[in-house]
Amino acid sequence: MTMLYRLIHAEKANYPIVLLCRVLHVARSSSYAWREGEAARQERRAADDALAHEITVLHIASRRTYGVPRIHAELRRLGHRVNRKRVARVMRERDIRGVTRRKHRSLTRPDKKAKPAPDLIGRDFHAVRPGIKLVGDITYLPTAEGWLYLACWLDLATREVVGYAMADHHRAELVVDALDMAYGRGGLEPGCVIHSDRGSEYTSAQFRDRIQELGLRQSCGRTGSCFDNAAAESFWALLKEEIGTRTWPDRVTARAEVFAFIETFYNRRRLRKHKIFGYLTPSETRQRHQHALAA
Hints:
This protein is α/β, with parallel strands linked by helices. 47% of the residues lie in helices and 15% in strands. It is built from 10 helices and 7 strands. The strands form 2 sheets. It has a 5-stranded mixed sheet, with helices on both faces. InterPro entries: HTH-like_dom, Integrase_cat-core, RNaseH-like_sf, RNaseH_sf, Transpos_IS3, Transposase_IS3/IS150/IS904. One of its GO terms (biological process) is DNA integration.
């Protein structure tokens, strides 16, 4: 019907509206109502175009990873009072999409001779404050020079990456180096739980001795159960989806890409929905906890 109304509006200078409506079998009242509402429709289209521009800027700033929930949260943080359904419609019409996560192969290789630590997490991936629960794991990235292995430690209270290390191997010193970074910058409390899978890196004497030296407590999930370390697995899925799964030309380039993702985007820019604070970055979540403790 919209095409008929536009045709009547375009030809009204050449033919009477009564004749056009009769030939096209359109009620005159409907034609007049459509004409009166055209200004409002143009205004809405202009508003949608402006909103689409804002969404495109935010989507590019998110490395083209944000979907509707985080785009809507970013708009609210910027002071835009916009309905979430409208954001979804505008993104759908402009084909602006977030990323979806893919499955990846586990790197866990259990050491059958080592006695693993007990599971102190029990799939409870929440913490009331930073520095009391960390989860960690190892993943690998393909480069033309070979694999680049990455070990990370996440604080469960903020989901901030507080420690990480990269190397061309995944021996025990890789996870020890990441733990030393987490201890130096994460504000870990005495007795902080350090949770991982039962890979040989985490059951090694070198790693267990370092945990004892730092006054921390080790925790291990069951062999072959990714759900016992789901928070760390979820971060790997997010990282690989948002930086891509291409083969980097060398390890130096891949290291730079990982560093930029963690330090400039994930920890300080990427929004995550907190059950109490709402959409915040991991760094902002840590600040909220610190302000609450100070108060």
